Amino acid sequence: MRPLTEQTILVTGATDGLGKALAVELARAGATVLVHGRDDERGRQALDDIAAAAGSDRLHWYRADLSSLAEVRQLATQVRAEVNQLDVLVNNAGVGSTLPGGGARLESVDGYELRFAVNYLAGYLLTRLLLPLIVDSAPARIVNVSSAGQAPIDFDDVMLTRGYSGSQAYCQSKLAQIMFTIDLAAELDSTGVTVNALHPATYMPTKIVLAVGQPISTLEEGVQATLRLISAPELDGVTGRYFNGTREATAEQQAYQPAARQQLQQLSDRLTRLDQPA
Fold first, then answer.
1. Residue 154 lies in a domain
2. CATH number for the domain including 144?
3. Which of 79, 137, 193, 274 has the fewest Cβ atoms surrounding its Cβ within 10 A?
């Protein structure tokens, strides 16, 4: 990988929590950071905060509500139009098991179960749409911020219309990220682009954690684990892996079932309409 001073990095969900803290560290190291969020006012405040903390003006704001696949497409179009190099994509944005909605079943703009839509489908679509730019920028990396909380996907009821559980919704969306990571890594073999997923840290003091319990890990632990996947030289060429913090780990067993991953990819292409002619 190039030095961080020569890299352009997109971090989704970067107006607070892990994403914002990560953006500070990347900007402090000299990277050009594309800061994403869904609210312009919070975005302006985040840019001011990151600039003040990092002493950097190499920051750019991108607004998109990831509960809308149309806005995900607009985000990708804007990035492609304004950036000629994308060294790292960090799919960090997400919603928790209880926030929003207190754990009730909610739907995205497109009518999909919200946690599956925001935590997984949005990142899937964004990655697919930005892939030509990322491959052209190789060596490059894609980092999917997942979770140790994982649950197998019930392909007969992916949208959890029967007996809804916010925890099940969250955990299946996080496993879907890992399944996508494994498949995309194989697809991009020999391109110079690596794809890895991680559980950054357990119960960091973020909004979605504070909504359900008390923090256990520090935000800094999560930042350092994620930063390692972005920039560590020893991870050059390491791809298709799941990490728990800084250690390689084993995901829920469905992640290693080729038939399940194929079923997920077909479903994902259909739900995001990537299976239709452009």
1. yes
2. 3.40.50.720
3. 274
